[in-house]
Design a protein that fits this description.
Layout (H helix, E strand, L loop, with lengths): L22 H10 L4 E5 L13 E7 L2 E7 L1
Parallel strand pairs: 1-2
Antiparallel strand pairs: 2-3
């Protein structure tokens, strides 16, 4: 069986820096900083708990990022 290739490094970026930003601005900035997947969710969304390397998640309420985390 062939080995799995190592994923590219995640951006050296703190998810906390997005909290308080307007959702569209946060998504653009995250993509510019190298996040491959940007996911915006309303509060209380039911989501799977798998960790996806290179993804940043935003919990968005009233058009602003309320919480942000990797994976």
């Amino acid at each position: 069986m062939a080995p799995h290739p190592a994923p590219a490094a995640e951006p050296e970026d703190s998810p906390e820096r997005y909290v308080g930003l307007e959702a569209g601005q946060a998504e653009r900035l995250a993509r510019e900083r190298g996040w491959r997947t940007v996911r915006s969710l309303p509060p209380g969304s039911i989501i799977t708990m798998e960790y996806l390397f290179g993804r940043i998640n935003f919990e968005v309420e009233d058009g602003r990022v309320k919480r942000s985390w990797k994976g």
